[in-house]
Write a structure and sequence with these properties.
Layout (H helix, E strand, L loop, with lengths): L4 H27 L8 H33 L5 H9 L6 H11 L5 H6 L8 H26 L4 H8 L4 H9 L4 H17 L2 H5 L5 H10 L3 H24 L16 H34 L6 H29 L3 H15 L2 H14 L7 H29 L1 H7 L4 H30 L2 H6 L7 H11 L6 H27 L1
Helix pairs in contact: 1-12, 1-14, 1-15, 1-16, 2-3, 2-6, 2-9, 4-6, 4-13, 6-9, 7-8, 9-12, 11-12, 12-16, 13-22, 14-15, 14-17, 14-19, 15-17, 16-17, 17-19, 18-19, 19-22, 21-22
C-alpha cells in the first residue's frame, strides 16, 4: 500500500460521513423530541401515498404503450419521437406545475386565449396529472430498453398459433419486461415522494409540503419527525428498487408491427397530444410571458448567484468524488464507501435541507452561510460525480497506469502524467452534471440559502408566492434550458455505460 493511500481512504470516509450526517441529525432530533404530531400524519401520509400511487399508475399507463409504439411499430420518425417523448425529463415537475397553475382556472392563460372557462388544475388530481406527465419517461425509457432486448421468436410463434396481437403483447411480451417496468415505476415513486414543488404549487398537503410549513413556523422538531416519516417511505422504495433485477435475454431479431394508415395517424395524434401536454404547455405559457413582460425586471445577479453557487458545488463535489471513486476501485471497503454516497441522492432535498439547518443552528458560523448551502449541494449530488469518475478511473488503473508503475514511475507521477489526462473527460462531465443539477435544485436551496441570496429557482418560487406569474417566464425558460442540458448529459452517460 502506498503512503498516500490512507489519506485517500480518509477523504473517502469523510465524504461518506458528510452524506450520513443529515440522517444522524434527523434521528437525534426527531427521536429525542417530545412533540406530538397529533392527527396530522395520517392525512399527510394518505395524500402522499395516493399521489405516489396515482402517479405510478399514470406513468405505467402512459409509458408502456409509448414504449411499445416506438420500439416495435413502423411509426414514421421513431427516433425523433423517442427523443421527444423522453424530453419531459428536462422539465422539472415544479416548472410544469407552475405552468399549469398559471394556465388554468379563472383568469388563466387558456381562458384569456380562448374566452372559455377552464377548470383549475390543482389538488390531488392536478398534482397526479402533472407528476405523471413529467415522470412517465422513467417507465418509457426503462420499458423500451427491455423491449429492445427481446427476440421476436416468441411473439411470432404466438401469432402463428392464432393469438390476436393485443393478447400476444399482453401475455407474451409484457411479462418478459415486467422487471423493466417495475424498475421505471419505482423511480417514479421515488421522484414523487421526494418532490416538493409540485404538491406545494398544487396545494396538496404531502410530507414535503408539511415539512416546509413546519420549518417556516420554526417547528424544527416537528419537521424532523415528518422528515423521518418520509425517509421511511423512501427507504421502502429504495429497498424494492434494489430487489428488482433486470431480466436479460440473448438479443435477437426485433419485432416489427405494421400499424396501417389509420393506426399510424392515430399514433401520431396520440404522441402529439402527449408532447403538447408535457412540452407545449410550459414552453407556450413561459414564451407568452416573455413576449408580454419582456425580462420582467429579472436581476442579472440572480443568474450570477446561481452560477457561482453551482460552480462552487461542482468543484467541491468533483474534488471529494475523486478519492471516493479511487477507493471504490481498490476493494470492498472502498466500494462500501462509494455505496454510502448514493444515500445522499435518495434523500429528498427538503429533508436534507431540514437536517442541515439544524447543523447550522448548532454551529453558528455555518448558519445561513454559502458554505452550508454548498455542503448541502455536495451531499445531495456527490453520487452523480462519483458515478462519472469511477468508470474512466477504473479503466485507467487497469491499463496504462499499471504499465507506468511497472516502468518505475512513482504513484504521484503516474497519476499526474497518466491517470489525470485519461480521466479528465470524466471529471469535466461530473462537474458539468453537478453544476446543472444544482442550478435547478429548489427545496434545499430554499432552506439553506443565506439571507438575501436568491437563485433562479428560488426567484421562481418567490414569484409564485407573490402571484406575479409574468416575472417567472424568463427564469423558467432558463431553467428549462439548464435542465435539458442536465438530462442530455445523464442520458449520454447511460448510453456510454451501456455501450461499454
Amino acid at each position: 500500500m502506498s503512503r498516500g493511500l490512507p489519506l485517500v481512504y480518509g477523504l473517502s470516509a469523510l465524504g461518506a460521513a458528510a452524506v450520513l450526517l443529515p440522517l444522524g441529525v434527523l434521528l437525534a432530533l426527531g427521536l429525542g423530541s417530545d412533540v406530538a404530531l397529533g392527527g396530522q400524519v395520517p392525512a399527510i401520509a394518505l395524500n402522499t401515498l395516493l399521489l405516489t400511487g396515482l402517479t405510478v399508475a399514470g406513468a405505467i399507463l402512459l409509458g408502456v404503450p409509448l414504449a411499445l409504439l416506438t420500439a416495435y411499430t413502423d411509426l414514421p420518425g421513431r427516433g425523433l419521437w423517442t427523443a421527444l417523448l423522453a424530453a419531459p425529463l428536462a422539465v422539472p415537475s415544479y416548472l410544469g406545475a407552475f405552468a399549469y397553475f398559471a394556465a388554468t382556472g379563472a383568469g388563466g392563460e387558456l381562458s384569456a386565449l380562448t374566452g372559455l372557462p377552464v377548470p383549475n388544475v390543482d389538488g390531488l388530481a392536478g398534482a397526479a396529472w402533472v407528476m405523471t406527465l413529467y415522470t412517465y419517461p422513467f417507465v418509457f425509457l426503462a420499458t423500451r430498453a427491455g423491449l429492445r432486448n427481446l427476440d421476436a421468436t416468441a411473439l411470432d410463434a404466438a401469432r402463428t398459433l392464432g393469438m390476436p396481437l393485443p393478447t400476444a403483447l399482453v401475455r407474451v411480451v409484457l411479462p418478459r419486461v415486467r422487471n423493466s417496468v417495475a424498475a421505471g415505476a419505482l423511480l417514479v415513486a421515488l421522484y414523487t415522494l421526494s418532490d416538493f414543488g409540485t404538491p406545494a404549487i398544487m396545494r396538496l398537503d404531502t410530507f414535503t409540503r408539511a415539512i416546509f410549513v413546519e420549518y417556516n413556523a420554526f417547528g424544527l422538531e416537528r419537521a424532523a419527525l415528518l422528515s423521518l416519516g418520509l425517509l421511511g417511505l423512501v427507504a421502502v422504495v429504495l429497498l424494492l428498487e434494489w430487489l428488482v433485477g433486470t431480466t436479460r435475454e440473448q438479443p435477437g431479431r426485433t419485432p416489427r408491427l405494421h400499424l396501417g394508415r389509420t393506426g399510424r395517424a392515430a399514433a401520431l395524434v396520440g404522441v402529439a397530444l402527449v408532447l403538447l401536454a408535457t412540452l407545449g404547455m410550459p414552453l407556450g405559457v413561459f414564451t407568452l410571458g416573455v413576449l408580454r413582460e419582456g425580462s420582467g425586471g429579472l436581476d442579472p445577479l440572480l443568474l450570477l448567484r446561481s452560477v457561482s453557487a453551482s460552480g462552487l458545488a461542482a468543484a467541491a463535489a468533483v474534488l471529494l468524488a475523486l478519492p471516493v471513486a479511487y477507493t471504490a476501485t481498490r476493494g470492498r471497503v472502498g466500494r462500501l464507501l462509494e455505496r454510502v454516497t448514493y444515500v445522499g441522492f435518495g434523500v429528498p432535498g427538503i429533508v436534507l435541507g431540514t437536517a442541515l439547518v439544524v447543523v447550522g443552528l448548532t454551529l453558528d458560523f455555518l448558519y445561513q452561510s454559502l458554505a452550508l448551502l454548498v455542503l448541502g449541494y455536495v451531499v445531495r449530488f456527490l453520487s452523480l460525480a462519483v458515478g462519472n469518475i469511477r468508470a474512466p478511473l477504473e479503466r485507467a488503473e487497469q491499463g496504462l497506469v499499471g504499465a507506468a508503475r511497472s516502468l518505475g514511475a512513482a504513484p504521484g507521477e503516474a497519476f499526474r502524467r497518466v491517470t489525470l489526462p485519461l480521466i479528465l473527460p470524466g471529471l469535466l462531465a461530473a462537474g458539468a452534471l453537478v453544476f446543472l443539477e444544482v442550478m435547478r435544485e429548489l427545496p434545499a436551496t430554499l432552506l439553506l440559502r443565506p439571507t438575501g441570496f436568491e437563485t433562479l429557482a428560488t426567484h421562481l418560487w418567490q414569484v409564485y408566492e407573490a402571484g406575479a406569474f409574468g416575472r417567472a417566464a424568463l427564469p423558467a425558460l432558463l431553467l428549462v434550458v439548464v435542465s435539458g442540458a442536465a438530462v442530455a448529459l445523464m442520458l449520454r452517460r447511460e448510453q456510454g455505460a451501456a455501450e461499454r
